[in-house]
Amino acid sequence: MKRFILAYPYQSSIIRWMIVCFLVVDTGLGQSASSPEKYDTDAAVEAIQLFQVIAEGRAVADAEWERVFREKGYRSYLSYSDSLYKKQLLKRMAALVFDPRRSSERDSVLALPIQLDRQGFELMLAQNLFALSKRLDEAEQFLVNTDFANVLRQADAIARRNLPSTIEAGYDVLKDVQFIVSDADGKVTNHAIVVDVNTALEFGPEGLVNLIAHEFHHDYRGLTLRQPTSAFGHELNRLHQEGVADLIDKDVPPVTRMGLFPESVVALYNDLYMSTPEILKTFADRIDEHIAGDLTQEALNKKLRGYFKFGGHPNGYYMALLIKDELGMPPLLDTYNDPLAFVQLYNQAAKQRGREHVFSDTFIAYALSNY
Predict the structure, then answer these.
(1) Are 118 and 262 members of one domain?
(2) Which of 38, 103, 189, 308 is the most buried (most CB within 10 A)?
(3) For residue 116, what pLDDT is reported?
(4) Coil, strand, or helix at residue 80?
(5) Residue 144 falls inside a structural domain
(6) Does residue 36 have a cis peptide bond before it, meaning omega lies within 30 degrees of 0?
(7) Is the CB of residue 259 less than 8 Å from the CB of residue 371?
(8) Count of domains forming the chain
(9) Measured on CA atoms in the order 234, 239, 240, 244, is the torsion positive or negative?
């Protein structure tokens, strides 16, 4: 962790952050030089520092925001997609949530219903920041006192147990885990893993280990994955990636709670999970229409992009659980990096179970040649 103490210009915030930074320097927490596990908390520390300034009713200059966005964690997060939009959004929502003069406006925004669209993403970010605003002291202590090296070691061990032995024994630890303040999530970006600090707090020690193990699984899988070259292949890849990794850290639906997500989103997740056979059938119908000449390639791509909601989690998890229940875990471990094998395993399990959607031979042939 960077040993910054004197760089911040706002005097009323300096004293408490001198204490925090002294503790980080003194305990050696942050990024460990003596351990293969790499982690970084600077981005989260500095973001919280800005939030405290906003909470004191003072403006934060764009230059100070840019300094935070140059931290490693935010560089990874913003490389994922829509970097300018996400910068502007975080600044806008931080001002809304933390500025005490805007409490009425904030409460009105937080009361709005959430859908799975861009506005819903923005509202969920606002809700996550508001939840964090109630536990800033706890977040500070978490960032300073948590034994992140141990968290990463436990998570890595769990991830490797969900991979074939060649991966379990054949690779060194790859991960660079970076804590930030963002939407309530953790994700892999360019072999780094970024985790929202409030999500980490909400999950608790065991949940955080499992969350990072889920992301580590993605990281190992990406080492040997044949990347998809079509919108169709991309959707299959999402089903497989999230479905198999969800076996590590997700409860079997229907679920009553999903971290910091509101009840409306939890209900939608459950509905998507239970509707998986119909959703898979409609997906296959689009391919049949394309093969029959009723959909051009361009029209097919448009219909398939983002077809599976929640990043493929509920439907992929349904498929992975079906395979696990009918065929056991070994086939899932052996095909950890092969979305096409995942679809074929699902078909085998669906035929064995009965009353499930089974992909046609035509669909399987199309998948094998159009991934």
Answers:
(1) no
(2) 308
(3) 83
(4) coil
(5) yes
(6) no
(7) no
(8) 2
(9) positive
Show the tokens assigned to 360.
């046609």
Together in a domain, 191 and 339: no
Bridging pattern class, strands 186-189 and 192-196 = antiparallel
Residue where one domain finishes, among candidates 222, 243, 262: 222
Stretches where the chain sits below pLDDT 50 are 1-35
Distance between CA atoms of 49 and 11, rounded to whole angstroms?
Answer: 12
Same domain, 151 and 184: yes
Residues 91 and 236 in one domain: no
**What range does the domain containing 208 cover?**
11-222
Flag whether 6 is in a domain. Answer: no
**pTM higher than 0.70:** yes
Distance of alpha carbon 64 from alpha carbon 88, whole angstroms? 13
Q: What is the pLDDT of residue 189?
A: 85
Q: How far apart are CA 65 and CA 17, in angstroms?
A: 17
Same domain, 112 and 40: yes
Number of H helices, E strands in the chain: 19, 4
Average pLDDT, the chain: 89
